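hey
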C-alpha cells in the first residue's frame, strides 16, 4: 500500500492559469483557472476553480465554476457550485449553493460515464413563457408572470 505523502498546498495569494495533475492530495486556497486531476482535493472557503475537477474525493468549501467528477463529493455550507456533478457519493450541507445537473455513477472517473452524462443532460433552452392572465392590471400581471431570475440567462446574478 502506498504511504500518504504531504499534501500540495496552493496558498490564498496564488493565482494559477493552467492544469494541475497530482497523484496525491491537493489543498487549494487560491485561484485556479484550469482543470485539476488529483487523488484528493480540498477547495478552501476563499478559493475558486474555473475548470473541471476530476478526483477520487473532493471537498468544496469555496467556489467552483465547472464540472466535478469524483467518487466522493462533499459540498460544505460555504460552497458555491455552477456546473454539473457526476459522483458515486454526494453530501451537501445546508446553505451550499449548487446550480447544475447531478447524477450518480458507479464509476464517475471513467470517460464512458462522463460521455454518457454529457449526452443525457438537459440542454439549456429558452425560459418558460409567461402564462396569460385575465387581470386588467397590466404592471402586476407582467411582474407575476415573469420568469424567475435563475431561469432567465440575461437576468441571472451569476452571469
Amino acid at each position: 500500500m502506498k504511504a500518504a505523502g504531504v499534501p500540495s498546498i496552493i496558498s490564498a495569494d496564488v493565482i494559477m492559469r493552467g492544469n494541475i495533475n497530482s497523484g496525491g492530495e491537493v489543498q487549494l486556497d487560491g485561484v485556479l483557472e484550469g482543470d485539476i486531476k488529483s487523488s484528493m482535493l480540498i477547495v478552501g472557503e476563499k478559493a475558486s476553480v474555473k475548470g473541471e475537477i476530476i478526483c477520487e474525493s473532493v471537498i468544496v468549501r469555496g467556489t467552483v465554476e465547472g464540472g466535478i467528477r469524483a467518487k466522493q463529493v462533499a459540498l460544505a455550507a460555504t460552497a458555491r457550485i455552477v456546473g454539473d456533478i457526476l459522483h458515486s457519493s454526494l453530501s451537501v450541507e445546508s446553505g451550499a449553493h449548487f446550480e447544475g445537473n447531478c447524477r450518480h455513477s458507479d464509476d464517475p472517473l471513467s470517460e464512458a460515464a462522463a460521455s454518457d452524462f454529457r449526452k443525457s443532460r438537459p440542454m439549456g433552452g429558452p425560459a418558460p413563457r409567461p402564462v396569460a392572465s385575465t387581470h386588467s392590471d397590466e404592471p402586476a400581471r407582467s411582474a407575476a408572470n415573469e420568469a424567475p431570475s435563475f431561469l432567465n440567462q440575461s437576468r441571472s446574478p451569476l452571469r
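The helical segments are 111-120, 138-145. Confidence is low (pLDDT under 50) at residues 125-144, 147-153, 155-159.
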